[in-house]
Specification:
Strand content: over 45%
Shape: elongated
Distance between the termini: 70 Å
Number of strands: 42
Organism: Fodinibius sediminis
Structural class: mainly beta
Radius of gyration: 34 Å
CATH class of the largest domain: Mainly Beta
Strand order of the largest sheet: 23-24-25-26-27-28-29-30-31-32-33-38-39-40-41-42
Oligomer: single chain
Keywords: Signal
CATH topology of the largest domain: outer membrane lipoprotein receptor (LolB), chain A
Number of helices: 11
Protein name: CarboxypepD_reg-like domain-containing protein
Length: about 800
């Protein structure tokens, strides 16, 4: 009996779950031109006196579910330039309803001749009316369906679909809850990102397109940004419809061009066909980016003009020297229906910043979406074939396989990352757990250093590391190791503690720009050496606390080290140069015992040579005294700041930016020679971001120091103004920069260094200005820097500012 009740209960639940789907009328068919028989894509089909409707696909096919509670219902078929057709649907009405729309006979309305452009007058009224009804629109909720297709030069390579609920609040924006989805067999379920919450509403004041903020055609200031031209008049429902051309009036701003259709009387947008102007471009390796947006609106005989669809076409070409990808063709069609307007929305939607969420409790995959096909826009014939033919072996990597002499390196990387043993490269340490890698360097003290580094994570919160190697110049072994343990981890913060030991050659001063590895090539090519060195043996224990958002951290530590001087052992270089020997100065020898503190914002962001702008603030303090068993008594302070500010043309994906940097340090007590601070300059002709570009060779050093640098990236704007399109197309931009620096001290040097070495200070205040051509060959910048305080002109090469 209990088994019977259980089965009966499950059957009842099943019947209840499908009964809503059964209580609906499914109407489908094709919308065509009555004269020519040609299909009418994106025809507007709605249920009269409701917010329910759909659109036809590119072949004119449509499908619409009408709840029994609305029957009998009147279906209204609209298409600009055609006579509207109404059809009554009852319970006994056949499901197949093909509709042939008659072209309307357009009677040109009387255009009042004035001094004002008629298109401007019309659009001014559209903007005014929109501001009126938009103030009354507070929220809405709707059903959404989205389909995205990717294709290469020959065929469709993937399809993703989703059904969702979309929500909008005039203050808090969009949210979308995914209800069901499906995709072709070659796409993972987690890779299905089809949705509408991130799609633009082209009726908005500002429209986000691929990171660019475009001025909408109904923005309150649209008449300052666009020229409008009346092209023709047509009709809809016996009302005049104006077809108006949209022309950008500002050459350097990201704007739209295309056409809009305006309904006379209501002065509302019925449909737009827009594409971004030439300003909306992307840096290499994107060679071309072309996209267009079509959207229709309907007020459903109510007060608000709401989007009922979005149709996007996009073609992207990615190409660079030695690597050429097939054309990427993107298509999207979205349909919104069954609006509920000015209703309370659940507070839970806006508790998180995520615009797109998944209703895991009710999420359905293929079966539900297929059973609800009537809710969707029908597939085209090519899309039906793609669903039938694409299997899991038809990967996107194969569909967009590049050509060119660099393509084989991508193929080799894919083979090495595969599961099969064939094609794998030789990896002698592959069976050792953790990460083992070689370590090597060359300088005038170590000569050749060769060794290994090892890192291993035996548990989720524990990291262990070690290193070791031998220097041929001073015949010394270097070695070290340590561990770090995350003893506290919460959603908003975490804490680590650790210990490190080392016995090695280390640099006498610390650069936040260059590592010793960066100077290997210059050393081998005859550079006299950027760094000085000494021998350090000891340990450091630390504890670190980090807030995840905002990224704030505090680290405290205790170190105990023994410092010893090292001498120059070689002047060798590959070019056989003479006269490139440089003395390695002695340090203040002894034992160091100190406590240190490092705190700041965004300290986890690593230096990237200026490829992108940075935002961080760092403060460091180190205090040594005989209370800690130290031979040195001092307190050292240093602060560093880097910040990037957008300036002009902020509507662009990459606006003009001002980047500033500050570095300053001071001390109290008796600072040992190996604890002085530096201000970085160029190494040879290499000038990464954050240095003084008119200083070359050794860095400026001192017990006290301050440096300030700034650069403004105008990107391609100056060359766009001058009309130098070949330069603009190569994404070559202009950067202006300037900087100053000054160092003080030391007054005394270690006795063993005093007769042979003098610190390299600024000798006053260093002032410089310069200009850069940014983006040469897509990767480099050419810097020309001039000293102001004394005659000097330097030309350097650096990594381009890409973003």
């Amino acid at each position: 009996m209990s088994r019977f009740i259980k089965k009966g209960g499950l059957l009842l639940l099943l019947l209840l779950s499908v009964s809503p789907a059964l209580a609906q009328k499914n109407i489908k068919g094709t919308v065509t031109d009555a004269r020519t028989g040609e299909a009418l894509p994106a025809a507007n089909i709605s249920v009269e006196n409701t917010y329910r409707g759909t659109i036809s696909n590119e072949n004119g096919h449509y499908s619409l579910l009408i709840p029994d509670s609305l029957l009998p219902a009147t279906l209204v078929f609209r298409y600009i330039g055609y006579q509207t057709h109404s059809l009554t649907i009852g319970r006994a009405t056949p499901a197949r309803q093909d509709i042939a729309l008659q072209p309307s006979v357009t009677e040109l309305g009387e255009i009042v001749v004035t001094d004002e452009n008629p298109a401007v007058r019309i659009m001014r009224e559209v903007i005014r009316r929109k501001q009126q009804w938009r103030r009354q629109l507070q929220t809405y909720e709707a059903e959404a369906y989205t389909r995205q297709t990717l294709a290469n030069d020959t065929s469709i390579v993937s399809i993703t679909e989703s059904a969702s609920r979309v929500f909008w609040d005039n203050e808090q924006g969009h949210r979308e809850v995914l209800k069901s989805k499906r995709q072709t067999a070659n796409i993972q379920d987690t890779e299905n990102l089809a949705g509408v919450s991130y799609l633009p509403n082209l009726y908005d004041d500002n429209v986000d397109i691929a990171g660019f903020e475009l001025v909408g055609v109904t923005h309150p200031d649209a008449l300052d940004f666009y020229d409008f031209r009346l092209l023709e008049q047509t009709s809809l429902d016996n009302q005049t419809v104006y077809k108006i051309e949209v022309i950008p009036a500002r050459r350097l701003q990201p704007l739209f061009r295309g056409t809009v259709f305006v309904l006379d009387g209501a002065y509302a947008l019925l449909e737009v066909d827009l594409r971004p102007n030439e300003v909306v471009t992307f840096p290499p390796p994107v060679k071309s980016f072309e996209t267009s947006y079509q959207q229709q609106y309907n007020n459903f005989n109510q007060d608000f003009w709401l989007p009922i669809d979005m149709r996007i076409t996009g073609d992207v070409k990615i190409s660079m020297v030695g690597l050429d990808f097939p054309l990427i063709q993107f298509r999207q069609i979205s349909r919104l229906t069954n609006y509920e307007v000015n209703i309370p929305l659940p507070d839970s939607l806006y508790r998180k910043e995520d615009r797109f969420t998944i209703d895991s409790a009710s999420l359905s995959s293929d079966s539900l979406l297929i059973s609800q096909r009537a809710r969707a826009v029908p597939l085209s014939e090519d899309e039906e074939k793609a669903y039938a033919s694409l299997d899991s072996s038809a990967t996107l990597e194969k569909a967009f396989k590049p050509s060119g002499f660099l393509a084989r390196f991508i193929d080799e990387e894919e083979e090495e990352s595969g599961d099969s043993d064939s094609g794998r490269s030789f990896r002698p340490f592959e069976q050792i757990p953790g990460h083992l890698r070689p370590d090597a360097r060359f300088n005038r003290v170590d000569e050749l250093f060769a060794g290994l580094k090892y890192k291993y994570r035996p548990a989720d919160r524990l990291v262990m590391h070690g290193k070791g190697g031998y220097s041929t110049g001073n015949n010394k072994w270097s070695y070290g190791g340590g561990l770090s343990f995350r003893w506290l981890s919460r959603d908003s913060y975490y804490a680590d503690t650790g210990w490190q030991y080392h016995a090695e050659t280390t640099t006498r001063y610390t650069s936040h720009i260059y590592s010793p590895y960066f100077t290997i090539i210059p050393n081998l090519l005859g550079d006299k050496g950027y760094f000085d060195y000494y021998r350090s043996e000891g340990y450091r224990a630390f504890s670190k606390w980090t807030l995840r958002a905002p990224d704030l951290s505090l680290e405290v530590g205790y170190r105990r080290e023994n410092h010893r001087s090292l001498t120059t052992t070689t002047a060798y270089d590959l070019l056989g140069s003479t006269g490139n020997y440089r003395y390695n100065p002695a340090v203040d020898e002894g034992h160091l015992g100190s406590v240190d503190l490092v705190t700041g914002y965004n300290l986890g962001e690593s230096y990237n040579f200026g490829i992108t702008g940075r935002k961080y603030l760092r403060f460091e303090l180190e205090h040594a005294s005989d209370a800690f068993g130290s031979d040195f008594n001092f307190t050292r302070y240093e602060t560093r700041l880097a910040w990037s500010f957008p300036t002009f043309y902020q509507r662009r994906l990459l606006p003009n930016t001002l980047d500033v940097g500050l570095k300053a340090g001071t001390f109290s007590g008796e600072l040992p020679y190996q604890k002085m601070g530096i201000i970085d300059g160029a190494v040879g002709m290499l000038s990464p971001y954050g240095i003084l570009r008119a200083a070359r060779g050794r860095p400026y050093e001192g017990e006290q120091y301050v440096a300030l640098h700034a650069e403004h990236n105008f990107r391609t704007i100056p060359f766009e103004i001058m009309g130098l399109q070949p330069v603009v197309k190569r994404n070559i931009g202009l950067i202006l920069f300037g900087g100053m620096a000054r160092t003080w001290g030391p007054d005394d040097l270690p006795a063993q260094a005093a007769d042979t070495y003098r610190p390299h200070g600024t000798g006053g205040t260093h002032w410089e200005v310069g200009a850069s051509l940014n983006g040469l060959l897509g990767l480099f910048r050419l810097d020309v820097a001039a000293r102001i305080d004394r005659p000097a002109l330097l030309v350097n090469v650096g990594i381009a500012r890409l973003f």
